[in-house]
Amino acid sequence: MTKVRGALVGTIYKTMLSIRAESGNSSSALSLMSTDVDRITITAYVLINIGPDIIQVALALWILATQLGTSSISAMILCLVCAIFGMYIAKLVPLRQTKWMAAIQKRVGITSDIIGSMKGIKVAGLSNNAENQIQGLRDFELAQSTQFRKIQVVSTLAGT
Predict the structure, then answer these.
(1) Is the distance from CB of 140 to CB of 103 less than 8 angstroms?
(2) pLDDT digits over 64-99, tens only?
(3) Residues ≥6 apart with Cβ < 8 Å to 89
(4) Which of 13, 57, 148, 153 has CB atoms 3.0–4.6 Å from 96's, for a disulfide?
(5) Cβ count within 10 A of residue 140
(6) Rounded Cα–Cα distance for residues 49 and 63 (Å)
(7) What pLDDT does residue 21 have?
(8) Residue 21, CA distances (Å) to 4, 17, 27 in order
(9) Which residues of 18-35 are buried (b: 16+ CB within 10 A; e: fewer)?
(10) CB within 8 Å of 160: residues ≥ 6 apart
(11) Where exactly are the structural domains of the chain?
(12) Which of 115, 119, 94, 102 shows the shortest CA–CA distance to 32?
């Protein structure tokens, strides 16, 4: 995963060097680079481990069944319920994560624009307004991330 992360960061950075700064895409792409790379590497890690995890659960349930007999059925049912619940939760993740990423991108873009024109903002006496606007965007971003993080907590509690 470290090699994948390094390759992705290198590729994104190399591409960003070739994009002109006037295009407007450079700040948003570069600012979300670490978030997107983390999402890709975590997804790859989960996909790589799905097969071994299924085998491990099946083996554990088989050992449990040989040791406890029919009373191990409750553990199997619990395992099945958690898996179904995890699939339901997984459907809720993309929408919440997309909203959070959009909020991050908006905040970073506006912050970059404000920093780029800081001299004019200070001369006009708008630094407090700019600060309040950035703080409001940060608060909105945190509210959006809270919805996503709640889903992560529920997913962790379900054991998926």
Answers:
(1) yes
(2) 889 988 888 888 898 888 888 888 888 888 888 888
(3) 151, 154, 155, 158, 160
(4) 148
(5) 14
(6) 21
(7) 54
(8) 27, 9, 8
(9) eeeeeeeebbebbbbeee
(10) 82, 83, 85, 86, 89, 90
(11) 2-158
(12) 102
For residues 12 and 44, give the distance between their C-alpha atoms in angstroms, rounded to a whole number: 18
Taking the C-alpha atoms of residue 141 and residue 100, their distance in angstroms, rounded to an integer, is 6
- The tokens for 96 are 């919440």
Specify whether the CB–CB gap between 40 and 50 falls below 8 A.
no
Residue 159: strand, helix, or coil: coil
pTM for this structure? 0.63
Residue pair 41/12 in contact by the 8 Å Cβ criterion = no
Is residue 102 within 8 A of residue 141, CB to CB? The reply is no
The one-letter amino acid code at 71 reads S
Residue 70: DSSP 8-state = G
Please state, in angstroms and rounded to a whole number, the distance separating the CA atoms of residues 111 and 116.
8
**Could you give the count of Cα atoms lying within 13 Å of 34 in the half-sphere of its Cβ?**
2
Would you say 27 and 112 are in contact if contact means Cβ atoms under 8 Å apart?
A: yes
Which amino acid, one-letter code, is at 69? G
65: nearest Cα among 76, 55, 51: 76
